[in-house]
Amino acid sequence: MRRALVATAVVLLSASGLVRLFTIGVHAQTVDPPGSTASPSPAAAATVGSNVLHSSGTEPQYPDHQPPDHPTPDSDYKLPFGANPYLPSEAKSSFSGFLKPSDVPSAAYCAHCHADVHAQWRQSAHANSFRTPWYLKNVQELATAKGVAYTRHCEGCHNPAALFTGALTEASKLARPNDDDGVTCMVCHSIQEVQNTKGIGSYIMGKPAVMVDAAGDPVPGLPSDQQILAHLDRHKQAVMRPLYHTSEYCAACHKAAIPKMLNDYKWLRTFSTYDEWQQSSWSRETPLTFYKKPAVSTCQTCHMQREATRDTASRDGRAASHRWLGANTAVAAYYGFDEQAKRVADFLRDDQLEVDIFAITVERDPLPGSEHFTPGSLIAPLGSKGFTVLPGDCVRVDVVIRNKGIGHTLVPELRDFYESWLDFEAKDDAGHTIYRSGALDDSHSVDPNARSYTLRIVSRDGKGLDHHEVWKTYVKAYDATVSPGRSDVVRYRFRVPSDAKGISVSASVRYRRFRRSFTDWVFSDGPSAPDRFPTVTMASGSFHFNTGVNAPHPEETLAPDATDLLRWNNYGIGMIDRQQYAEAVDAFKHVVEVDPRYEPGYVNVAIAEYSRGRYADALAWIGRSAALDPADARAMYYKGLCLRWQTRYDDAIAALEPVARQYPRFRQVHQELGYIYLIQRRYAESKAQYEAVLRIDPDDPITHRWLGPVYAALGDKAGAAREAVLAAQTGNDTSAGWVAQRFWRDNLSVAAESMPAHTYSDGNLLDDRDVSRVLNLMNPPSYIWVEHY
Fold first, then answer.
1. Nearest-angstrom CA–CA distance, 63 and 145
2. What is the pLDDT of residues 135-190, one digit of tens each?
3. CA 95 to CA 220: how far, in whole Å?
4. What are the distances in angstroms from CA 735 to CA 266, 280, 777?
5. How far apart are CA 638 and CA 644, in angstroms?
6. How many whole angstroms separate alpha carbon 473 and alpha carbon 266?
7. Residue 767 banded pLDDT, cuts 50, 70, 90
8. Distance from first CA to last CA of the chain, Å, rounded?
9. What is the C-alpha separation between 479 and 772, in angstroms, rounded?
10. For residue 409, what pLDDT band results from cuts at 50, 70 and 90?
């Protein structure tokens, strides 16, 4: 029990070496995520602030007297963050001064030759990144609270044309003809490079040019269609770059943080979709994944699949889709984009997730009327084994949610107001509901006691932030998701009625944009108003059993490839993430019993043993895996970790260095080597390893923690001082956990969910053992108890 009390971040890093977004009482950062759909009038999104926002109708509305179209900002352009006119956005430009609004060609101009692609783009989240009423209301909230200049943090990705024309300052009268185009064509196609993967708009914008001349220099203005068609090579040279095919290009905006200059507190990670992809099997840049992909899939592979087009620029009648299908159901519903709505819903349901009613445990009541049960053995996988359930028994059902088709977390990015949850129901054969978790109430809000894949951000005074006021974020009290290639195990308990003949259990992963409290705020809707945006069921599973004897039978809801081996493996992965390591060990042992030649199964047992601190046992299992595949980099990495914990540093280096050479963008192996070299006082080698991490993630907190001492040892005082500041900014403020605990005391359902091993059931949450543990002021809130040894 020597590791029973473990800091959350350490547990999660040690357990898997992967990003783990279920964090208890720490900052909003990643350390090691039916009603009417008729289109309202666009006028519903009218001006909500004269300083920042313009009308969001079909065409922007301007006064009769047009302000001057000038290349430099007004003389009173505010620079509260220093000389950089774009901060707090990370965006930079390759030109001096500001663009004229007319320097940014309209999307309508591009539609002359790209009509089909333009139609796709118009219905996308990119095209509508600024004008939607929910975004306008939220960004105006920021402008009102902090000032217009602070909105540059958002507009570097939501409205770059406004940022680069100098319109984002108090009382600006600059013309803004591009507002309704959001991320328009010549925003993306004018980016010259990506500075790094910090996000928040970490790109370098060039001056938009549709063509270059014979010497390769940009041609100003708008060439005619005939000029472009006569020199397609020069057009392509102006607007296309190899960079645009990479995930790093997308990282510039699909990764974000709150800098100190925005929240007056400290740097906080908000979302890291790029990092989630980069550390998944889709990138093939890490060996740590439980399943391996045969080829690299970039962001564009999934979100810009080629489709038929009649456009002049198409190749063989096909072009990369500019719909960027993903999870944004709101834009299509609000603007009446029926084709986009159908495509998005189909995309969400396209084998992205898998729901497996995997196991039950029958807890037999020894005495009539007693509420004390004796746990029985796990019956799994369901369908493969017979079992008996009697009326009056208490049954625990284990449901496995597998992220099999998403290259990042389930509900990535802004989980604080996006909403996904598991709807579980048990019914008797007469159709009566015995137990349910995840229904919508009369006000269309999700059952607070449902398993939710969401984020709860909290202000400094312990209040929940339901309106995406990220600049007020002090701590996250809850953050749960399913990472790519991983599984979530959710447990439910209910009693079988005395008159029940049979029970059907079902579980469905549902998703909607947005959380009902958020849309009520945006649109001033009352509780009885219908949902404005659809709820999509992404995946479902079900199982029926009789009261009495149940013979083995396969389940029709399972995928054809859902073998016993795969089902046990997914269960084991989920148990690691529940931090119930002994049960994970048992699950993975079942995997290798099913197929003794399945080498990853032995490594999985080793990972589970390592996670509970049994390094010798983990090494023994890695030895068994080596008999089948001595070159398994994942096994070698965990071997190195075990050896490091045993202080066998030279042996650990011998195991880890080949892994680093094979996977040069595998951040965790560089962290491990950097730390070992630091212990050995091999400072130059330690420096090289930690700097390799920063080339992958410039904000990596672990690296900033240790690189400062390395620089100091090498005599680099400036570097050491810089890293000390960055370490303080990116590291956790452990005292913030007490604010999360204050929030938990007022929100017991969140307190229950914040415990990884929680079981959902009827009853008073104050009597729930997990809730009691979380609320116990003797337990530091930045720590969690791990009891399954």
1. 27
2. 999 999 999 999 999 999 999 999 999 999 999 999 998 999 999 999 999 999 99
3. 14
4. 13, 32, 13
5. 10
6. 10
7. low
8. 7
9. 19
10. very high
Least confident segment among 34-43, 470-479, 551-560, 634-643: 34-43
Other beta carbons within 10 Å of 181: 26
When computed from its CA atoms, the radius of gyration of the chain, rounded to whole angstroms, is 27
Let me know the angle formed at the C-alpha of 180 by 53 and 411, rounded to the nearest 5 degrees.
90
In whole angstroms, give the CA distance from residue 37 to residue 279.
37
pLDDT per position as a tens digit, 194-239 = 999 999 999 999 999 999 999 999 999 999 999 999 999 999 999 9
**609 vs 683: CA distance, rounded Å:** 32
774 has a pLDDT exceeding 80: no
Burial class (CB within 10 angstroms; exposed 0-12, middle 13-18, buried 19+) of 219 = middle
- Please, what is the average pLDDT of the chain? 87
Give residue 75's pLDDT band: very low, low, confident or very high (50, 70, 90): low
The DSSP call for residue 80 is T
- Contact criterion met (CB below 8 Å) for 32 and 19: yes
Residues near 726 by beta carbon (within 8 Å), at least 6 away in sequence: 704
Bridging pattern class, strands 353-363 and 394-403: antiparallel
Structure tokens at 739: 């604010």
pLDDT of residue 776: 72
- Mean per-residue pLDDT, 86-108: 95
Burial class (CB in 10 A: 0-12, 13-18, 19+), 637: buried
How many angstroms separate the CA atoms of 518 and 531, rounded? 11
pLDDT score at 675: 98
Query: Do the Cβ atoms of 104 and 171 come closer than 8 Å?
Result: no
Q: What is the token pair recorded at 438?
A: 């995840």
Q: How many CA atoms lie within 13 A of 655 on its CB side?
A: 25
CA-nearest of 343, 331, 325, 328 to 42 is 331
Contact by Cβ (8 Å): 686, 711:
no
Beta bridge mates, 353: 403
pLDDT of 29 > 50? The answer is no
> For the chain, how long is the longest CA-to-CA vector?
91
One DSSP character per residue, 214-256 reads TTSPEEPS---HHHHHHTHHHHHHHH--GGGGSHHHHHTTSSE
Question: In b/e form, how buried is each residue of 437-467, taking b as 16+ CB within 10 angstroms?
Answer: bbebeeebebbebbbbbbbbbbbeebebbbb
Main-chain dihedrals φ then ψ at residue 471, nearest 5 degrees: -70, -15
pTM equals: 0.88
Distance CA 362, CA 504 (A): 15
